[in-house]
Task: inverse folding
């Protein structure tokens, strides 16, 4: 079926009319969304002039986020970013520190730790568990301000 020139022109005009309607309603929706957003927003000028709210805060918590605490365990230096954790690790006995280092930083298995200390696997698990309990008590002491 061959299309006549008049039919092609009709299709072109219909498509142009359709595009205009779509663009018109898209613009109306955008205008409505913008008005809704404006009704819900509060200006920074209003906050600073009327209520005197500061636009920023300074917490002691965020004072130096990149402070590093190097500690040496088993001849290896570890860089920690949590000062309380570093102090708690240093307050542990040497053997407990070594076990924490081997298990968490050295990626040793319980069996490998048991072999290093000449013990069975369950004893190595007990060493790791007791070291973690001591570390938890030390960290709780630091967080409660006991030290």
Result:
């Amino acid at each position: 079926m061959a299309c006549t020139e008049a039919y092609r022109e009709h299709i072109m005009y219909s498509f142009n009319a359709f595009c205009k309607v779509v663009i018109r309603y898209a613009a109306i929706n955008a205008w409505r969304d913008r008005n809704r957003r404006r009704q819900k927003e509060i200006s920074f000028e209003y906050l600073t002039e009327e209520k005197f709210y500061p636009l920023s805060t300074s917490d002691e918590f965020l004072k130096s986020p990149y402070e590093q605490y190097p500690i040496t365990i088993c001849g290896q230096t570890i860089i920690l970013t949590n000062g309380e954790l570093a102090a708690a690790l240093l307050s542990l006995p040497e053997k407990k520190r070594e076990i924490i280092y081997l298990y968490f930083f050295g990626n040793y298995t319980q069996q490998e730790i048991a072999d290093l200390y000449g013990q069975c696997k369950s004893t190595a698990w007990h060493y790791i568990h007791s070291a973690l309990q001591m570390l938890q008590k030390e960290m709780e002491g630091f967080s409660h301000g006991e030290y």
